[in-house]
Amino acid sequence: MNVQIGMRIPPKIGDEGIQKTAAWAAEAGLDVLDVSNLTVEVKEACSAAGIGIGSIDAHYTAQLLSRDEAKREQAIEMQKKQISGIAELGGKVLFMCLVPEDLTLPRREGFALFKDSFPEVVKHAEQNGVYIAIEGWPGPAPHYPTLGCTPEMWRAMFEAIPSKHFGLNYDPSHLVRLGIDYLRALTEFGERVNHAHGKDTEILTDELYECGVLEATFGEKYDFSEGSWRYTIPGRGAVEWGKVAVRLDRLGYNGAVSIELEDHSYWGSIEAERQGIVKAAQHLKQYFK
Predict the structure, then answer these.
(1) Mean pLDDT of all residues in the chain?
(2) In this structure, what DSSP letter does residue 52 have?
(3) Is 80 exceeded by the pLDDT of residue 127?
(4) Whole-angstrom Cα Rg for the chain
(5) How many helices (H) and strands (E) are present in the chain, helices listed first?
(6) What is the pLDDT of residues 197-224, one digit of tens each?
(7) How far apart are CA 181 and CA 133, in angstroms?
(8) pLDDT for the residue numbered 2
(9) How would DSSP label each residue in 138-181?
(10) Of 112, 124, 146, 238, whose CB neighbour count within 10 A is largest?
(11) For the residues 275-286, what does the mean pLDDT come to?
(12) Is 203 helix (H, G, I), strand (E, B) or coil?
């Protein structure tokens, strides 16, 4: 398979600066870095380390889903400007998590705002050779307002915007916690996968008995959890990565699988983060290399 393994930069590793981060990532055998900003400095640091650029974070998504029309119009222009800048530096994938400005915004209303804002943004991305990848994190409790985290919503969004320059960041960890068949989702929507995250979810059966799928009333036991599940590195959760790899290969996917480190066992120090990234990469390389 022609799939690259990369990472979103965890906080302690990132505190070392982009030059040291890129150098360590290359030494760890990674192929790409997902970055929050693509600048000349970032590009040069990655090039010097022999490592590529995976995705680049979008900066204006909350305002693109604002109820305020003037804010949406301004955000459209700013997002188009970011896309142009990314393209000039050779970036290809713009990562978005579509969390609205108002965290109580019903998803149906958010979808209407999406249909108003996004066609112009996607058209500009298409003209510049940039591919948008939306993340399936459902957003903060209790309203879970994020667009693009369920097959129901993906179907409607892709009908509204058929361009493949608007697609998915495939992250099975979110689908597992939501009870959605992550392999079936990949079969149905795989042709719209523009990027992927290497992250897993463990279902905590004792906690599921205690609080069901609701948030734990008295606080969750682990970081990166809401009670009955917790995010983990690949290989420590429910995702069968071999099956994911087979389906991505069948689809001809040749992008990256970037490790998103959200696992309490590998958090809190640079040593723990590095250990988590290395273990995650070792697991993924069994199937993607």
Answers:
(1) 96
(2) E
(3) yes
(4) 18
(5) 12, 10
(6) 999 999 999 999 999 988 888 888 899 9
(7) 20
(8) 80
(9) --STTT---BS-SHHHHHHHHHH---TTEEEEE-HHHHHHHT--
(10) 146
(11) 98
(12) strand
Instruction: Copy the structure tokens of residue 103.
Output: 């965290």
Tokens read off for 70: 């003037």
Chain mean position to CA 13? 19
**Token pair listed for 90:** 């050779």
Q: What is the pLDDT of residue 1?
A: 73
Pair 65, 108: CB distance under 8 Å: no
- 162 half-sphere exposure, CB direction, 13 A CA radius: 0
Q: Which amino acid belongs to residue 259?
A: I
Q: Which two tokens stand for residue 185?
A: 């989702």
Cα separation, 89 vs 268, in Å, equals 33
CA distance 199 to 181: 15
If one counts every other C-beta atom within 10 angstroms of the C-beta of residue 250, the result is 11
CB-CB contact of 176 with 238 (8 Å): yes
Tens digits of residue pLDDT in 227-267:
999 999 999 999 999 999 999 999 999 999 999 999 999 99
pLDDT tens across 33-42, in order? 999 999 999 9
CA 272/CA 118 separation, integer angstroms: 39
In one-letter notation, the amino acid at residue 101 is E
Which structure tokens are listed for 149?
């985290």
